[in-house]
TrEMBL record:
Top-level taxon in the UniProt lineage: Eukaryota
A GO molecular-function annotation: protein heterodimerization activity
InterPro entries named in the record: Histone-fold
Name recorded for this polypeptide: Uncharacterized protein
Length: 139
């Protein structure tokens, strides 16, 4: 499999930060979200996951050509190159699902008010501000 070579080729130069890794707390939190309820993670496994994630990101940085933004296509291509092509499809589906969920949440968050409702809210806010000013500073 090509994974060890791809990670080794990424080296310290690709990321520009030699020896940089994620915090163990972050790795534990990410793993806890992915593992089944009640599953434990050995500290050595946390360290190994940390090195793997860091190596994968460095490999992506080493393979970037042109723009400096890592796109889902770049992740898919690197996964396929490293022999994890079957995971690339699952990752792409998950990313698409996440994008759709985020889009729906943003759309719901945009509440549309009528001009009358906006005027009522502004008037209410002005009353509250005036009452607060009067309470603090008197007349």
């Amino acid at each position: 499999m090509e994974a060890p070579d791809a990670l080794a080729d990424a080296g310290d130069d690709a990321s520009g930060a030699a020896g940089t890794t994620f915090s163990n707390a972050l790795m534990k939190r990410l793993a806890a979200q992915a593992l089944p309820q009640g599953a434990a993670l050995d500290p050595d496994a946390v360290s190994m996951l940390n090195q793997c994630c860091t190596g994968f990101i460095r490999a992506m940085a080493g393979h970037l050509q042109g723009p400096k933004t890592v796109t889902p296509d770049a992740v898919d291509a690197l996964l396929a190159e490293m022999g994890f092509g079957e995971y690339a499809a699952a990752a792409a589906a998950q990313a698409e699902s996440t994008d759709e969920t985020t889009h729906r949440k943003k759309k719901r968050a945009k509440v549309k008010y009528t001009d009358e409702e906006i005027a009522e809210r502004i008037a209410e806010q002005e009353k509250l501000c005036a009452a607060s000013w009067k309470q603090m500073y008197g007349d």
